[in-house]
Amino acid sequence: MKILVLGGAGIVGKAITKDLLGQSDVSMVVIGDINVKRAEKYLATLGGSKGSVQRVDVNDHDNLIKTMKNFDVIASCVYYGMVIPITKAAIAARVHYADLGGFVTGTKAQSEMDDEIKKAGITVLHGCGSGPGLTNVMARYGADKLDRVDEIHIRAGATAPSPGSPQVKGAGMTIQTVLDEFTMHPVILDNGEYKELPPITGREVVKFPDPMGEQVCYYSRHSEPWTLGRYIGKGLKHADIKVVFPQEELDKLSPFIESGLTSREPIDFKGQSIVPREFLDRVLVVKEQEEEEQGSEFCGTVQWVIGEKDNERIKITHTFSVEHEKRWGNTKTGVPFSVGILMIGRGEITKRGFTVPEEAIDPSRFIEEIKKRGFVFTEKEERFKTL
User: Fold this and answer.
1) Could you tell me which of 35, 30, 37 has the C-alpha nearest to residue 2?
2) Do domains 2-129+330-371 and 134-247+280-328+374-384 have the same CATH topology?
3) Where exactly are the structural domains of the chain?
4) For a FRET experiment, which of 46, 190, 209, 287 has its CA 20 to 30 Å from that of 354?
5) What is d(CA 316, CA 293) in angstroms, rounded to the nearest whole number?
6) Does residue 185 register a pLDDT over 80?
7) Exposed (0-12), middle (13-18) or buried (19+): which is 347, by Cβ within 10 Å?
8) In whole angstroms, what separates CA 186 from the centre of its chain?
9) Where are the alpha helices (DSSP H) in 293-387?
10) Residue 160 CB partners (closer than 8 Å, separation 6+)
């Protein structure tokens, strides 16, 4: 199996690259990145002979297509705003492709390419990280235990430092994605209808698995409510996701938002046209890269499905968590993505066209593979009877 990992030396890409290189049926893993030096430095820490680095600019459409044709599966870890151009390249190259999602806007746009994807005879697996990804599979796993599903609620993004490690900084996403979360409208499924809400609303204190404990969550623009509403069935009427945004992150980024530095409208600066948001992204990404490899941390998610089984009201709660060394990237997101990529390459995902984890992936098989990588899962079932 030959796999191209776009952005394979980034925060999430590192974890995917490392996991893929450890698989006996993977013969080649190429990190496709514009930052060749960084990718080569990371690959050197992994060792072995199956990995290599190739300079790939995802904005160069023709060369991207040419490069893709040499692989069995493409794994994209680049900024979600590039989902559609990269999907178009995969269609032209006729090669299977998976990504980490595109928030609601990108998800909708990619789903509308289903006919083109099917004509190319390929699978496009959308959103197969931790969330979206493992969260969707766990929602399916819970829904399959019920006759009717009324509600699905996901609370994600909790972190805590391992003993001896520095305090966790940030919200567990790239800074570009965090800025989008702070400035774009989240979407929920409410009584069978999709609704947009103001950014950073729905504050809720949630108890996560130890040692993460209680953390504050807000509604997120993640795509889970949109895809769950389309693919779970069983009468689902309510779905939402909230993500942990640390107060220090809100305090740090709010001045940028309030001052207009997150605007995407060009401005004139000393005779040059610049986009404030692009400038801000560049400055903050450099700082983020300096911090991302320090120490180890725990990451976790809690989610629950409410519905009915044999005329009884039931709530099924799942948690999953993992401890990982940050020098190997974001394992919580990277490992589920790697497993999804391997399932495509091994023929375990057979659907062609646009698809999502809750439709294409066998939950039990997925969970078992991820448990082998150190993830811990729990399940609690509560039954409610009328007296």
Assistant:
1) 30
2) no
3) 2-129+330-371, 134-247+280-328+374-384
4) 190
5) 36
6) yes
7) exposed
8) 16
9) 331-345, 357-360, 363-371
10) 168, 211, 212, 213, 297, 298
- Residues 259-311: tens digit of each pLDDT: 888 888 999 988 889 888 888 887 776 555 555 567 888 999 999 999 999 99
How far is residue 168's CA from residue 155's CA, in Å, rounded to a whole number?
Answer: 18
If DSSP codes are grouped into helix, strand and coil, which group holds residue 216?
A: strand
- pLDDT (tens digit per residue) in 76-110: 999 888 999 999 999 999 999 999 998 899 999 99
Distance CA 101, CA 87 (A): 11
**Reduced DSSP (H G I as helix, E B as strand, rest coil) percent helix, strand, coil of the chain, to 5:** 35, 30, 35
| pTM, rounded to two decimals | 0.93
Q: One-letter amino acid identity for 158?
A: A
Q: Which amino acid is at 149?
A: V
Q: Print the SS3 string covering 126-138.
A: CCCECCCEHHHHH
DSSP assigned state of 139: H
What kind and span of H or E run contains 56? none
CATH superfamily of 134-247+280-328+374-384: Dihydrodipicolinate Reductase; domain 2 (3.30.360.10)
Q: Which two tokens stand for residue 236?
A: 């689902």
Tokens for 315?
Answer: 């709530």
Q: Does domain 2-129+330-371 have CATH number 3.40.50.720?
A: yes
- Smallest Cα–Cα separation from 343: which of 144, 137, 157, 53? 137
DSSP 328: G
Q: What is the pLDDT of residues 344-376, one digit of tens each?
A: 999 999 999 999 999 999 999 999 999 999 999
What are the backbone angles phi and psi of residue 101, rounded to the nearest 5°? 110, 175
Contacts of 252 (CB under 8 A, 6+ apart): none
Per the prediction, the chain carries an average pLDDT of 92
Q: What pLDDT digit, counting tens, does each position of 230-256 carry? A: 999 999 999 999 999 888 888 888 888
Question: Which residues, other chains included, contact 137 with Cβ-Cβ below 8 Å and sequence gap of 6+?
Answer: 336, 357, 358, 361, 363, 366, 367
